[in-house]
Design goal:
Layout (H helix, E strand, L loop, with lengths): L1 H9 L3 H6 L8 H8 L3 H6 L7 E3 L2 E3 L2 H10 L2
Antiparallel strand pairs: 1-2
């Protein structure tokens, strides 16, 4: 599964990657697009995916998601 995620990440258009820099928080849909998975998969695996929750909303950071992919968790 990790290899599939890495393959999908490498297929992202540069515009998508450039749109989300390391400091800008991503919402659930943007994180799903970044990881190449569905929103449902994000929610099903939220305990394993690095995120922050503020006022009932989930936020993700590109650097943390990249580290998550590289760890092979």
């Amino acid at each position: 599964m990790v290899q599939l995620l890495l393959d999908r990440f490498n297929q992202l258009p540069p515009a998508v990657i450039a749109q989300a820099d390391d400091e800008t928080p991503l919402n659930v849909q943007q994180a799903a697009d970044f990881l190449g998975i569905s929103r449902q998969t994000i929610y099903q695996n939220i305990s394993r995916i690095p995120h922050r929750k503020r006022h009932g909303k989930l936020y993700f950071f590109r650097r943390e998601l990249s580290d998550y992919l590289n760890q092979g968790v």
